[in-house]
Amino acid sequence: MTDDPAANLGFPVEVGRIEKELGKLWESIGDKTRASLINLAIYTESAAGVARNTDLISQIASEHACRAILIYARPEAPERGVRAWINAHCHAANKKEFCSEQITFQIDGDSPSALTNVVFAHLDSDLPLCFWWQGPFREPLDPRFWTWIDRLIFDSNAWDDPATQFGLVQKIAHLGDARTVLCDLNWTRLLSLRQGLAHFFDNACALPSLRRIDRVEITHAPGARTSAILLLGWLAHQLGWTLDSVLGRHAFRDRNHAEITFSLEEARGACISKCRLTAGESEFTLDRSAQGEFYHASMHGPECGESSQLLPAGRDRIHETLLMELSRAGKHPLYLKALSTVTPLLA
Amino acid sequence: MSTAKATNPLREGLLSRSAPEPCSLVIFGATGDLTHRKLVPALYNLAADGALPPSISVVGFARREKTDEQFRTELEEAARKFSRQKINDDLWANFSGGIYYHRSEFTNLEGYESLARRLDELDAQRGTRGNRLFYLSAGPDQFPVILENLRKSGLNQAREGSWSRVIVEKPFGIDLPSAIALNDMVEGSFAERDTFRIDHYLGKETAQNIMVLRFANAIFEQVWNARYLHHVQITASEPLGVEGRAGYYDKSGAMRDMVQNHLLQLLCLTAMEPPTDLTADAIRDEKVKVLRSLRPLTGPDVARHVVRARYAAGSVNGKDVVGYLDEANIPADSQTETYVALEAHIDNWRWAGVPFFIRVGKRLPKAATEIALHFKSVPPVLFAQTGDAIDDNVLVIRIQPDEGVSLRMSAKLPGSALRIEPVKMDFHYGTSFGKATPEAYERLLLDAMAGDATLFARRDEVEQAWKFVDAIRAAWDSGEGGPVVSYAAGTWGPDEADALVQASGATWRRL
Question: Helices B68-82 and B89-96, interaxial angle, to 10°?
Answer without folding.
Answer: 140
